[in-house]
Amino acid sequence: MNLLAIQRGMRDWLTGDETAATAFGPAGRAGLDVYQNNYRAQLVACLSEKYERVAAWLGDDAFEVAVARHIGTSPPHDWTLDHYGADFPLTLQSLYPNDPEVAELAWLDRTLADAFVGPDVEPVSTQSLGAIEWDHAMLHFTPTMNEFRVHTNSTAIWSALSAAGTPPPVEPLPQPATVLVWRKEFTSCFRTLDPLEAIAIAHMKEGGTFGSLCSMLVDLEGETAGVKIAGECLARWMQDGLVVRIGAATTR
Amino acid sequence: MPAGGPLAGTIPAGSTMHSTSPRFGLGLRPPHYADFLRDHISVDFVEVISENFMIDGGRPRDVLRRVRERHPVALHGVSMSIGSTDGLNRDYLLRLRALVDEIDPLFVSDHLCWTRIGGFNSHDLLPLPYTEEALDLVCTNIDIAQDVLGRTMLIENPSSYLTFAQSALTEWEFLDAMCQRTGCNLLLDVNNIYVSGTNHGFDPLAYVDGVPADRVRQIHLAGHSQGKKLLIDTHDQPVDAAVWSLYERALRRVGSVATMIERDDRIPALTELLDELAIARSIGTRLEQRAA
């Protein structure tokens, strides 16, 4: 066997091809077993650490089954384990199609972990807001910001599990909601958005100006309430450290 | 397997003495971040797993910057995959280079192993056959890595659980040839020598006597565990008595190089690791005093 054949053979063995062991001879079996155990143990540890709340919710046995399924179907591709298991929520979705809170807990675990090692960008300070021409202002959010949709009270379950408390029973939400995840200084945070704030964030992310946001909210909620909601959104985004740059839209 | 005779002898005259290099260090692991940031910890350097800090930002990078203000830092990698037939990952190298530029590390090291092939990454240090083909490949990859990093690398001997009928060289002959051809230096893991020697039936003393002593810049010490059939490099135990004995033998051969204790599982209180490091310090000091 040349080097390429050895490396392909070991990859096949690690990823579950029992027949690959024969190329290494009977004397090699004990060593191959050690490497396979190390490989799997490393990935189990990675997923257990990253998806701690999912493990707590499912219980050890069910979590082990889910992890084994994921490792068997999604071998790691990247040089960093930080990226391993990014698609574990999809594995959980397929295993628990009638229990949406399981995958939602996983999305929250994952996005919080991603935010934890995301880029460092200083938020805009409130002192610098005086000179902004708000009609044309475009807000740029922190690169650690992420969103996903939930259909259940999974955030309440996550919080209870995180505090080692008794989680509430699963309940569907009256309406699907958007969960916002980001990092403030060195702490990953999340909160569930009010529907209008979710619309406002989507508008700003699509390149809208603060002026056009106000117009949109006025159309939706009326003059007084629309402007008030826009101001409250901006104040909250500043308070949460979400805004990292305020640019001006170019006009023709 | 016996790892050497009585703990006698001195660092030999004419051995390489890297007296300006920090001597005794520990791995910096998350359970001890607060200790290192709060207190003056009496180590000469710390070593971190490079990949844990090759990230965009957040608390880990901040901790590393602040620890670097207090201690020299060695960067020890596990994912360069210098033995990969796929060649090196340029994105990986550039991220490591950025970290090197920021931290100005004492050493940059990785392992004589492979972890990646065809888009698959094992995240485990997989063994190489010691053949001319593997030597050519490893040397080419080390040349590329050293060029991108702008530094001489240290390459560590791995623990291994598998040997190959194709191997034409011993591991220490392979390391010697690799150093000669690339100019790289060695991180000699004494526990790995003991583990691999036990698993494959070679004499650890012959290994220690066979490595190019003038290339060794750092020594690793760690604990191991007995597996079902093989000895496993678990890093979850104190250093074994036989490994301490082999360490003394290695020091006598390579001189006063930086020594570091690795603990990656069942990590105890920092004081326990400092006590263990004191054993290494006392062995090194005793040998130096005898040599003086």
Structure report:
- The complex is a heterodimer of chains A (252) and B (292).
- The radius of gyration of chain A is 24 Å and the shape is elongated.
- In chain A, helix 5 runs antiparallel to helix 6.
- The N and C termini of chain A lie far apart (67 Å).
- Chain A is built from ten helices and five strands.
- Helix content of chain A is 51%, strand content 15%.
- Chain A has helices spanning 3-14, 29-50, 52-58, 60-73, 88-95, 100-116, 154-162, 195-205, 210-221, 223-239, and strands at 137-141, 146-152, 172-184, 187-192, 243-248.
- Chain B is of the alpha/beta class.
- Chain B has a single domain (24-291), classed as TIM Barrel (Alpha-Beta Barrel), CATH 3.20.20.150.
- Chain B is 39% helix and 17% strand.
- Chains A and B meet through helix 1 and helix 2 of A and helix 2, strand 5, strand 6 and helix 4 of B.
Describe the SSE topology.
The complex is a heterodimer of chains A (252) and B (292).
Chain A: H1 3-14, H2 29-50, H3 52-58, H4 60-73, H5 88-95, H6 100-116, E1 137-141, E2 146-152, H7 154-162, E3 172-184, E4 187-192, H8 195-205, H9 210-221, H10 223-239, E5 243-248
Antiparallel strand pairs in A: 1-5, 2-3, 3-4
Helix pairs in contact in A: 2-4, 3-4, 3-6, 3-7, 4-5, 5-6, 6-7, 9-10
Chain B: E1 24-27, H1 33-38, E2 45-49, H2 59-68, E3 73-76, H3 90-103, E4 108-111, E5 114-117, E6 120-126, H4 132-149, E7 154-156, H5 171-182, E8 185-189, H6 190-200, H7 204-210, E9 216-221, E10 225-226, E11 231-232, H8 241-254, E12 258-261, H9 270-291
Parallel strand pairs in B: 1-2, 1-12, 2-3, 3-4, 4-7, 7-8, 8-9, 9-12
Antiparallel strand pairs in B: 5-6, 10-11
